[in-house]
Prior knowledge:
Order of helices and strands: HHHHHEEHEEEEEEEEH
Oligomer: single chain
CATH architecture of the largest domain: Ribbon
Helix content: 25-40%
CATH superfamily of the largest domain: Umud Fragment, subunit A
CATH topology of the largest domain: Umud Fragment, subunit A
Amino acid sequence: MVIAPSEPMIECHREVKGVVQHNGGQRLRALRETLGYRMRDVELASNQIARRFDSEEFAIPPSRLSDIETKGIIPSIFRLYSFAAIYRREYRELLSFYGLELDGISADISFGRPQKSHLSEALSNVTQVRMPTRLDPGFSLQKTTDLRRAIEQWGTVPMAYLELFADDRYTYGYIGSEDSAMYPILPPGSFVQVDESRNKIEEGVVWRSELERPIYFVEMRDGFTCCWCSIKRDSIVLQPHPLSGVPVRVLRYPQEAEVLGQVVGVAMRLGDLHYSDFQATPKVRSALTRDVLGQLEKEA
């Protein structure tokens, strides 16, 4: 039994990159011919896939296959899956036929700015990374350096080669645009590296400065946050930075909050947070003004 669509399936006809679309179809045709498939063979195989998924979206009739191969029609995500299975190729490879490289997704992550803090897995399936493969011999970690000048060569490196540097202790989080709890130390929009082995809150330690005090990545019932923490009997105190204007939260521990680990690394942009994004409370403005006046008095 051949599954025929009850109505025409909608696929992409846009000519944003006509050459890429046309070449994608040509490359699919080259794969088919290399494997010795006739159009009828592809149709029969795709019908079996469609039956397994109970969805005719996976079926590739000869007329549609001809359009894809010769007219620059972009196949749907379901038909691309069928192509990958029938031609025995990686799905991401077929996406690359149409100019879509999943390994380049990191370049577009910064365009979206989620409001909620969360764990990030956007790069978990990246197979290759572009990174420096040769540095200037005079490069020194002790000196502030313009990295563009220190990097002599960039190259694409398979992620499998980086497994030697992998450490399962770490996970990565993103500080949402509405989470200013640790501003100005960790401004919204920062990426943080979290050491999951350090998920016990340190108590009874006198910190010489706020920069020494551990910052924890905490999962709550309503989301995530980064903050200082302390334990009071059966409760956890989520302490934000005093200049953030965010109130202290006290939750039952561990019923309402779980410490995932300690923040041990951060990647952030400077200069992107504007006054309109962060409205300091009168108390905070007073503290800021007091600090400035105190500094001016010392200089005088």
